[in-house]
Amino acid sequence: MGLFLTSIYISYSQNNQITSNVNDSTKTNMDAVYNRPFLNINKSPVAIGGYVEANTNYSTTDGINDGFHFQMRRFTLFFASSISNRIKFISEIEFEDGTKEINIENALVDIEFHPLLNLRSGILFNPIGAFNQNHDGPRWDFVDRPIVSTEIIPSTLSSVGMGLHGKYFAGRWIFAYEAYLTNGLSDKLISNELNRSSFAEAKHDEDRFESSFSGRPLMNGKIAIRNRKYGEIGISVLHGIYNKYLKDGTFIDQKRSASILALDFSTSVFNNHINIIGEFAKSYIDLPDNYLPNYGSQQFGFYTDISYTMLQKKIFNWENAKLNIGLRTDYVDFNLDKKPADNQKIGDYIWSFTPSIAFRPNGSTVLRLNYKHLRQTDFENNPASLTGILMFGLSSYF
Amino acid sequence: MKSNFTITCLCLFYIFTLFSCEKLFPEAPLADSVMDAPLDGLTELQNRIFLDGAEEFDEVYTQETGLGPIFVGASCASCHNADNRGTLSTILTRFGQIDSTGNKFMHLGGPQLQHFALPGYDVEKIPSGASSSKLIAPIISGTGFIELVPESDILAMSDPNDSNNDGISGTINWNQIPNWVKPNDNSITKDGKYICRFGRKAGTYNLHQQIVQAFNQDIGITTTFMPNNPINYLTGTNPAVDSDIDITDESLNATVFYTQVLQTPFQRNALDPEVIKGKEIFNSIQCSACHVEKLKTGFSVVDALSFKEFYPYSDLLLHDMGSELNDNYTEGSALTSEWRTAPLWGLGLAKDVQGGKYFLMHDGRARSIEEAILLHKGEGLNSSDKFKTLQDSEKNQLIKFLESL
Known about the structure:
The complex is a heterodimer of chains A (398) and B (405). Chain A has one domain (5-397): Porin (Beta Barrel). Helix content of chain A is 2%, strand content 57%. Chain A is built from two helices and 20 strands. Chain A has helices spanning 148-151, 199-202; strands at 5-9, 37-41, 46-61, 64-84, 87-96, 101-114, 117-125, 158-170, 173-182, 218-227, 231-241, 246-247, 250-251, 257-269, 274-285, 298-315, 318-333, 349-362, 365-376, 385-397. In chain A, the strands form two sheets. Chain A has a 16-stranded antiparallel beta barrel. Chain B has 405 residues and is an alpha+beta fold. Chain B folds into two domains: 37-260, no CATH class; 273-327 and 337-404, Cytochrome Bc1 Complex, Chain D, domain 2 (Orthogonal Bundle), CATH 1.10.760. Helix content of chain B is 28%, strand content 8%. Chain B has eleven helices and twelve strands. Chain B has helices at 2-20, 44-58, 76-79, 143-147, 151-157, 207-219, 249-260, 273-284, 369-374, 381-389, 392-404, and strands at residues 70-71, 92-95, 112-113, 116-117, 132-135, 173-175, 189-190, 193-196, 295-296, 309-310, 318-320, 338-340. The chains are: A mainly beta (398), B alpha+beta (405).
């Protein structure tokens, strides 16, 4: 071939078996974009990488079986380059569900002036919660993404913009921040086929890479604190206008804002045998009066993952392979308002529990078996619809 | 090697257990507790059209797909949850007509109030001087059977002059129909008006008319039959409205077919002695004089609908319900105090779609079956008075029967 491949990790930990950077004492969730395996070809300045996610899906809702399916959820390519010692470029192109959705999720340049002062510009992941920046399939023991991190925090949310980020190290402690202005959300937040307020829909705007839907930027910031022994906690906020209120210099509506406040955490106990990670998010939406209360002006959700490493040893001749068991708990309430007719709480919420078994032959690959039990109520809080989903999946960096 | 073998066995056992344990997958609710299933006996082609119609029925419209600009709900299913009745959250308002001379507020947006609007548009308001009535969406299930009751049968049940002196008249809503509604062959007319049967006031002729109007007035969806969006006349400054046809005739017809071939609500616990006793009381206090238990369909090209007996507990006629239920609004030839006998089928399933509570009568004002019975005045007064004289155990038996429907 005349070529030989050298495997480099810009920054990647083989011990990073599940989620986030629990076991990497120098990284925070903000670093996830670089914390991946890459390959360099000879002396090429460009490193490439990626990951793939595929699974089976067998689901039944209230006795109605959806059949047995194979799903190719994601095929993602990374390209990275160290332009100079303190100038880096990284990008991520994702093919979802085959070629149903093709997105440039990430294409940014980082210029370091000081560890506390880095300029980032391009298409970037909005730092809201932890999952949005740290969503690569092979990191997780669960096939599905957390519900709160896809429905309230619309992962993966990436936008064109720029801003600053930095870190400060003090003994065992790491302080990190990110602050960006990016293009904003769209009015699909309330004009969508879900018939509810939906941030997941609001990220869809074909023109988002060339203009901000409202004409105003989205403000987004995060502060994270990490203790190398105990774990990490982050607080993030996102705020912007989601509707087109001005057209050709003429006001056609009043400005309507939407905000998300998120708290994320990750920790590891019992010598890294148990990893706990979670994310809480609450959203606030300024709705037209007549949309209340059918659409939620406030939403709330959380997830927690608990993963226990049962075995870590040579298995099937894979050195240092792992067998994990885990449990994810999901909760999302799409409408925290009350019905005016009887002042009762509106339903429209989801509970989900997902036990998991995951086998990790190495740090880059995971085989996972999940059973997801999901209870969803409607607006009126009628008896919940029940869904059971069995998934067996594979995800691997390459 | 031993540990690898153990791990493999454990994983295989886990996989096998998951796949073999049906309990992991939620069971279907009992057939008699749902309303959104198709009739038994449909052909495969009919099932396919039914499913196409179900998709249309459930579709949530957006501005891009034709919603509004002013509307009541974004989908059929948002008001008719699981083809059952609506709730106070999805209640609609009609206004502008007080007698058979017609709606005097059509030029101001009558007959229906669109109280939602897309961002940037104004919601409609009830014009000054117009009286109004709030209406909860009725059950969709079984309406295909109601549509096929021969007009001669409805006419035979009517007794406008109370010739049998039972205190119950029962009148037909003779109403004009839009020129795009195709009347049945041999349809009975009176002064150019037709026998109508759908809606709380029985002001609508058939399901095709009902659904075209609902698409337009409820969702702001245009069809070839009603090609203009509802407009907020009071503001007088609505931006230009895109009046392209929002859904095709094919989609419309599938939606109509979907409603026509939905199963009827089933009675539950019919053999329970308490229920049987309750039914006897129902008949003895003359509830059944209006809430007629059994009707029969006429001919239909759908075999599963043709010449079938069914049990709606309604005579499809108008009855004076007294001043308390007189909202000073009407449709067709109905008096403002007259309401079509509400079919009682599915009554016991109302709580399953109304958040565990009852919101009964046309506007949901009754929070229990007993309260609903006591609201029956006018032609229903005799029965509600008899209900008051029942012993508690008899009242409970009657309510148990009604909840079995």
